[in-house]
Amino acid sequence: MIRLTWSKSLQFEAEDDHHHRIIVDTDKGFGGLDQGFRPMDLLLVALTGCMAMDIVAILQKKGGKIDSFAMEAAGTRAETHPRKYNKIKVRIICKGAYRREDLLRSFELSRDKYCSVTATLSSKPDLEFVVE
Amino acid sequence: MIRLTWSKSLQFEAEDDHHHRIIVDTDKGFGGLDQGFRPMDLLLVALTGCMAMDIVAILQKKGGKIDSFAMEAAGTRAETHPRKYNKIKVRIICKGAYRREDLLRSFELSRDKYCSVTATLSSKPDLEFVVE
């Protein structure tokens, strides 16, 4: 479970079950204080973080030696409300001593079999709300 | 755009275009260091953060005085890989001097009209990958 608590302006603090905390914020022009990630960027962090863990873990199991690994993600948003992401482009940049086919296979296994965030984004989860 | 960079073990650091940074990590049992949010929890933070900004902003515009505001979210995951969220339950807890109907209307406007994360989760965005 996560709990998000209003701090001030449009800034919030999120806490998980393991006592980690992050600030969620938005542009000053939208009433925020610009001191933390925006929610739509966090969606991209969730996506890349999930895939990155799969890819690094699988590639290493295949014997790959990774010197550096990064992912970049950017979304194209609809112009009208609710300005959802129509498309998300993801780049995977891996440097080290590994076989190209092993990196591609690790990526495919994440995308098609293991990544929980990718699968959730591709499946319209039920959302249930309670307003107290 | 966001950029996620591998740190060590299965721990990563994410950075947005505004120089904010957060640690993304996972359980020690899965090879992480347990020093930051897990990706699937970040998905819940993105969802609640986006809706929270809408609801607080709209309710205040309607003249509501908010003393405290929080949202909680928990997902029910599939038992088999890729263990996606089948359902996400969200609680909204608002205290202050406001009309109940204004809170409900603010929530509905977020859910149905303004929240970019809710809309993205409900629409299967295209995912495009480049492996360098």
Describe the model.
- The structure is a homodimer of 132-residue chains.
- By secondary structure, chain A is of the alpha+beta class.
- Helices cover 33% and strands 36% of the residues of chain A.
- Chain A has helices at residues 39-61, 100-114, 116-121; strands at residues 2-8, 11-15, 21-24, 65-77, 85-97, 126-131.
- In chain A, the strands form 2 sheets. A 3-stranded antiparallel beta sheet of chain A has the order 1-2-3, with no helix packed on it. A two-stranded antiparallel ribbon of chain A has the order 4-5.
- At the A-B interface, strand 1, strand 3, helix 1, strand 4 and strand 5 of A face strand 1, strand 3, helix 1, strand 4 and strand 5 of B.
- Strand 6 of chain A pairs parallel with strand 5 (85-97) of chain B.
Helix count from the secondary structure assignment of chain A:
3
Distance between the first and last residues' Cα of chain A:
17 Å
Instruction: Give the integer mean of the pLDDT values of chain A.
Output: 98
pLDDT below 50 for ≥5 consecutive residues: which ranges of chain A? none
The greatest interface between two protein chains, and residues involved on each side, is: A-B, 88 and 88 residues
Proportion of residues in β-strands of chain A: 35-45%
Main sheet of chain A? 3 strands, antiparallel
Radius of gyration over C-alpha positions of chain A, nearest whole angstrom: 18 Å
Please state how the strands of the largest beta sheet of chain A are arranged side by side: 1-2-3
SSE ordering of chain A: EEEHEEHHE
Helix content of chain A: 25-40%
Give me the count of strands of chain A: 6
Q: What is the SS-derived class of chain A?
A: alpha+beta
> What kind of oligomer do you see?
homodimer
- Overall shape of chain A: it is elongated
